[in-house]
Design the sequence.
């Protein structure tokens, strides 16, 4: 099955600085890599995702890069703001035969943006 | 579109009691997931359904946990008997995921279970 490792587990940055979170995965057949943001006491919500046919995707201050050869992908947040403080999770699927893909989550990164 | 609905939001039970959680996925979503999220950790998949069939339950403690999705829509997750270590948030999610690709998984608000 898929094994997803996420680093760092906690990240403290000054407002306006950048934050980078990295994930590695084990299943070379994985083809979809979402990032979720979970604020305290709330549900995880998708913030950006990338498919294996592209190497980078950007949405305003958030970007994701993918290196399929090395089997790792990263979340980049630029110009961080206090509202970016949350726990971020990466995920990767492993193929379950022809019945769809199983989504495995990383352990999470707690990001704290200090004003 | 309406989101994933879960109930109850909170539940406190004593160890060895039983408990059941309910989930109503987004209309038209074939895939339904139950995740367990222990405080400070990432969501751990317990069971995944494709319509009313189980596609993965490798991490479901089958001696005490059970889940069903009889008509391919709503699902229930049951724990019997509960242990202290079952204290967690139980998240239900659904997606349009088909056979050949992934799409976004939408999460419900979760049920926070406390076993005392």
Sequence:
């Amino acid at each position: 099955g898929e094994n997803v490792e996420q680093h760092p587990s906690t990240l403290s940055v000054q407002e306006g600085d950048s934050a980078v979170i990295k994930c590695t995965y084990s299943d070379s057949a994985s083809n979809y890599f979402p990032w979720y943001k979970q604020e305290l006491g709330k549900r995880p919500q998708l913030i950006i995702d990338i498919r294996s046919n592209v190497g980078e995707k950007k949405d305003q201050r958030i970007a994701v890069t993918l290196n399929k050869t090395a089997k790792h992908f990263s979340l980049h947040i630029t110009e961080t703001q206090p509202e970016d403080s949350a726990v971020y999770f990466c995920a990767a699927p492993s193929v379950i035969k022809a019945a769809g893909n199983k989504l495995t989550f990383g352990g999470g990164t707690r990001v704290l943006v200090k004003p | 579109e309406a989101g994933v609905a879960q109930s109850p939001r909170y539940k406190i039970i004593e160890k060895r009691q039983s408990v059941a959680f309910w989930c109503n996925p987004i209309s038209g979503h074939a895939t339904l997931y139950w995740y367990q999220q222990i405080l400070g950790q990432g969501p751990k998949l317990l069971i995944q359904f494709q319509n009313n069939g189980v596609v993965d339950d490798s991490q479901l403690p089958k001696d005490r946990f059970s889940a069903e999705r009889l008509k391919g829509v709503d699902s229930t997750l049951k724990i019997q008997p509960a242990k202290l270590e079952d204290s967690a948030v139980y998240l239900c999610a659904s997606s349009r995921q088909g056979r050949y690709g992934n799409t976004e998984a939408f999460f419900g608000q979760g049920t926070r279970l406390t076993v005392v």
Remarks:
- The longest strand of chain A covers residues 86-95.
